[in-house]
């Protein structure tokens, strides 16, 4: 119930992770249909980039305002930090404060004067402003780092490399908020280069007890994890997509015209294959470089047909091998019989 600077930066990281989830699933999903020239119904979804900008913007973001308060001369308190936020962020649709002189919140008794509230992707969170400045300004003084670096213990010396006199930097050490922001940016850059797989954990109850299922809690998590939007996009679009070449390679044994070799373009081969299997036209669409299958049942049908065809081919291979083996054995026996008979006639 009481949220301070620590929970604020944790929620900031969650917003960034949610943003990359949106970028790599919802947005990329819809952009791929446009890129492939597929007709479909566009699904509206909430992009939380506006919330991330509220927190991390270099000029007007909350972290930037916090760093500015920590660095400026004069009397700096948590209240002056909140006053600055009220000046800069008062008109932002996801920022709420009683001190912002905004008529919407002047009579909001659920919002104390020493707090501000952010409407995150997963809901509204109220933050106690007390301690923000001190926790963000939690710096290790340069002379203390130098003293620790001079220690005779190798581990202590290794933990304070900034104390090395040869690497003295006269710049002010970065604040806790700016360090965390840089770490999150590095994490996002790393994730952008990967092929992510998502595992969403749903907490069935707050007590962490077995056999208790809180419907309201589960629905809340599903809604704010973005799962509903993801499902809507998937249902409105296509469940499966694959480039023409690997698709033809996987299912070409289902059609006599494409098996064992197809000499023409891969897309033409896939068209012949789907026409031969009499798959309804509304179940698939041809993109510029991929085949899109709308319903998972169609894909399951293809996989079942492929499995059966592989069994038939295995039986055919086994039949041919057994025939070859028996024929080879018969010819060997026939040749041996002729040799034996010729030698017998010679001495008979």
From TrEMBL:
<keyword id="KW-0067">ATP-binding</keyword>
<dbReference type="GO" id="GO:0005737">
    <property type="term" value="C:cytoplasm"/>
</dbReference>
<protein>
    <submittedName>
        <fullName>MYO1B protein</fullName>
    </submittedName>
</protein>
<dbReference type="GO" id="GO:0016459">
    <property type="term" value="C:myosin complex"/>
</dbReference>
<comment type="similarity">
    <text>Belongs to the TRAFAC class myosin-kinesin ATPase superfamily. Myosin family.</text>
</comment>
<feature type="region of interest" description="Actin-binding">
    <location>
        <begin position="184"/>
        <end position="206"/>
    </location>
</feature>
<dbReference type="GO" id="GO:0000146">
    <property type="term" value="F:microfilament motor activity"/>
</dbReference>
<keyword id="KW-0547">Nucleotide-binding</keyword>
<dbReference type="InterPro" id="IPR036961">
    <property type="entry name" value="Kinesin_motor_dom_sf"/>
</dbReference>
<dbReference type="InterPro" id="IPR001609">
    <property type="entry name" value="Myosin_head_motor_dom-like"/>
</dbReference>
<dbReference type="GO" id="GO:0030048">
    <property type="term" value="P:actin filament-based movement"/>
</dbReference>
<dbReference type="GO" id="GO:0005902">
    <property type="term" value="C:microvillus"/>
</dbReference>
<dbReference type="GO" id="GO:0005886">
    <property type="term" value="C:plasma membrane"/>
</dbReference>
<dbReference type="GO" id="GO:0007015">
    <property type="term" value="P:actin filament organization"/>
</dbReference>
<dbReference type="GO" id="GO:0006897">
    <property type="term" value="P:endocytosis"/>
</dbReference>
<keyword id="KW-0009">Actin-binding</keyword>
<dbReference type="Pfam" id="PF00063">
    <property type="entry name" value="Myosin_head"/>
</dbReference>
<keyword id="KW-0505">Motor protein</keyword>
<dbReference type="GO" id="GO:0005524">
    <property type="term" value="F:ATP binding"/>
</dbReference>
<keyword id="KW-0518">Myosin</keyword>
<feature type="domain" description="Myosin motor">
    <location>
        <begin position="1"/>
        <end position="307"/>
    </location>
</feature>
<dbReference type="GO" id="GO:0005903">
    <property type="term" value="C:brush border"/>
</dbReference>
<dbReference type="GO" id="GO:0051015">
    <property type="term" value="F:actin filament binding"/>
</dbReference>
<dbReference type="InterPro" id="IPR027417">
    <property type="entry name" value="P-loop_NTPase"/>
</dbReference>
